[in-house]
């Protein structure tokens, strides 16, 4: 079986197992057999680390149901990291010689490309951050809910934040903690680091270690590192400015708070579309402009190799660099003085075409099954599902069963990736050596 | 002055002259000085062959006002063709040797690339189609409105259809003629041929002449021809099926008519987003799904070298071919067994990035200036303005002055093209010969 098919079927298998577990009477809080659609939706949402939910997970599911959701989200989140990293080693990620030497020197061990070791390192990173996050959240939850419930809440939200899964056990998500520095910065920290990609964290760790040990190495940051960190920072900055400028005049979201509270909200709303799915304001009450900006940010999504979804920050940068290149009349696309291969540009175009196509298709279908909904609510929900974000204007639970099934498919397609899914369906590419004559074409 | 600056300033000049003419008392039907915003909006809409209107042109403007609109639309429409053709000869359109010989043999004259002759040929084509259109429309308008008014209506709508300008002198646009075969097929024929590009019409003419004269030439259809015609046909087919499937259940648009009338409506609604702007149903009454499909079709737009706007059919095909290529694991992007140059792919990406950016930017601004509007109404209006379509859900006249100014800018940017405008602002590209090392990047 091809790699792409293995991945696609692997996710389907985990979703199926999760659905069966969540259908069991011990998974629901009232002890009855669960509605199959609710179980399927929740399992898909968890495995795809989306966080959209047709029910309130905190009251609908028993402790066991909540634990299954957490495990499914952890498998899904680890899946993101390991799958991507596995694929990288598989396609033979091309470091240049200087980088390879630098990385190996920094690691002090030449066996870096050994996949078992990479996997172990990813799991270790995950555990370190999730445990740290849990400890940081304890002071926020234990005083109010006691040790038993408080610890569970801290574990649940820490793991959900790191994996960008976005399930919350609070009825109003994290709105109750909108002004808590501790909760806001712990959660956003986990979201950003979990979503920025394992490669980036590894490089930052190596750099930091060398600085602390005052070692002199010629460690060169990879292009992935530079693009992921710079794009994430730019998007966060734009987001904070935009949400602050737009929503402060909206009394139902930012308006009632003081300046410090508004900045905290703007920060959280800027982080969460990349692609966490937690919210500290009522998304359904946002202005049209705020919702549309959120949709755009959700669609861009996180960085590759992390736990987040979307079309990815790197894809965006490749496309904007193409635009810059054509405006400068050049032929070589550059990013940080590195040439971008044509195949990479084609892949970026493919990702965007496939993603836009899928979003348009799902949006039209839901517009047909649920014609009473506002267009922006449908588009918001579809992009949220596709980019595995999990934010919602509040319609998830009330849409028709057909729309729920469409959202389930959208989450799955968005999770495995349009290109990977197509490759799984069409079979592996067979390269050809025939060359064709070139011809010009009028474009744009 | 650079070519891009000449074009940008040229359009601004025509818009300014048009605004002054439309402000004059003899341009309005009540003989008073016109509102500057109305004059500016109408002049921009006419020169950019958009057809969006903040007033009802049939009653608001005098005969002279209507004539100015027609002349501005004609200048704008010819501008599309000549500007593009001029640019093609300027950038030294690369025909391969076989094509060049074939074209020259077909034309029986080697001076084909002479721009004066091309211009003359474009004007002749325009006149032939506009006059034919006028004659075909006469039987529809003269019986009802008499010779004077009927002739004027025929001329006005024929010229507007060919130039994809979309202004109508009827209060309800062409809804009154939704079941008239003559009007529907004359108008849609003009729209399609005007929007498909001069190059395509020329090649079709040469092919037809050779067939009729039973001459044997080795005329090879250009890639432009193949891509423009096939994509136009595919989109029209999809449009008819989609609108028929969706809107037949909507009693306010298709529902009240019989099957033949519904097919005629589906055909017209499928043609008009590419990018004519006439309508035979009340756009504001369409379903959400129908509106969204129309938005997508408007954004794609017409073929380059014609009178239509949008991101262009060829751009879409280059992008879908890139997607196909990456799925097949190839490096060379092919269209009809011709290789697409990397610079062309970059241009296509640039067009899409610029267009999407502009649409998002304008949409957010109008969502801020007019927060009470439905999101889909705003998006529809902005895409309609940007792709110079002219369809509207009916809000054009009632939006705030700020929103009107945003729409004016959007029409202008959409008309001259984001890339051309950027080139005009940034100055001409200065190619460099420095080569950079290549580096891989995680995408999507
Ligand atoms: K999520
Ligand atoms: K138009």
Automatic annotation (TrEMBL), chains A, B:
Q: How does it sit in the membrane?
A: Multi-pass membrane protein
Report TM segments: 6-25, 67-91, 118-138, 182-207, 227-246, 283-302, 344-368, 375-395, 401-426
Q: Does the keyword Plastid apply?
A: no
Main location per UniProt?
A: membrane
Q: Which GO terms describe its cellular component?
A: plasma membrane
Determine the domain of life of the protein's source: Bacteria
What keywords would UniProt list here? Cell membrane, Ion transport, Membrane, Potassium, Potassium transport, Transmembrane, Transmembrane helix, Transport
Please give one Gene Ontology molecular function term for this protein. Answer: potassium:chloride symporter activity
Q: Where in the cell is it found?
A: Cell membrane
- The protein in question is named ATPase
